[in-house]
Amino acid sequence: MGTQKIHSRVFSFEFYPPKTEAGREKLRVTWQRLATLKPRFFSVTFGAGGSTRDRTLETVLEIQTESDIEAAPHISCIDSTRSNIREMLQAYRAAQIRHLVALRGDVPSGTVEVGEFHYASELVAFIRQETGRYFHIEVAAYPEFHPQSQNAGADLRNFKRKVEAGADSAITQYFYNLDAYLRFVDSCEKLGIELPIVPGIMPITNYVQLARFSATCGAEIPRWLAKRLEEFRDDLASLRAFGIDVVTALCARLLEMGAPGLHFYTLNKAEATLAIWANLGLHQGQEDTP
After folding, report:
1. What is the dihedral of CA 257, 263, 268, 270, to 10 degrees?
2. Which end of the chain is flanked by fewer CB atoms within 10 Å, N or C?
3. Is 194 annotated in the active site?
4. Residue 153, pLDDT above cutoff 80
5. Average pLDDT over residues 164-187
6. CATH number at residue 258
């Protein structure tokens, strides 16, 4: 890794919009606990086909107004029009939100038309056209390649188009294969892509759930790891302890190799992320230099 070492380390945590009042209260406790670590930002996901659009806005506004942590809503291409994206951008600007995560998004089952935007690069270009440099725009990266990509070369070219459209930084899909991330970053550098590519981190607390997520998004669970996780069966405490050790080691190695931070997929839970953070001995603060 070369250019990634010049970027300051940025740490962030991701949530999904809760559906119920109990879920909202649970998330409130979670983000308040994680806010003590002073991350650079919290991101909030956007459901397939915009199914959580209003809840995303509500969650982002709560975080933005009740904490000193920047909130970054996800915006998806799927089932979106220029008109409703423009309205969202205006609402976020009115709330003084300056950070976005622009994604293609998952196509809901049975959907034929995806909307006016077919690719995240088109969405990024539209945001820049509408708002100039007002927003810091994150995009997605896939070290193990997007499950719908034709091949590795096409996937890299798609990523480069998002960068050229105006992305500021990228967050990867989660992975457990360090070499996949390192090789992806090296390939990007050879194409002249110099923006920070922050690794996405998924704590391991539930193997069945993790296997389901991974099958959908194309993230590989290495055979050795899958076999060890299968051994624990219903011993969730041991699985969690083992998962924290594995992910801590991965994070430590990533930071040692120059990764420009970590982005934790929290699943609206704080415990595993807090344990990994403590194991890494990270300092509180929005940015940590290598």
Report:
1. 50
2. C
3. no
4. no
5. 96
6. 3.20.20.220
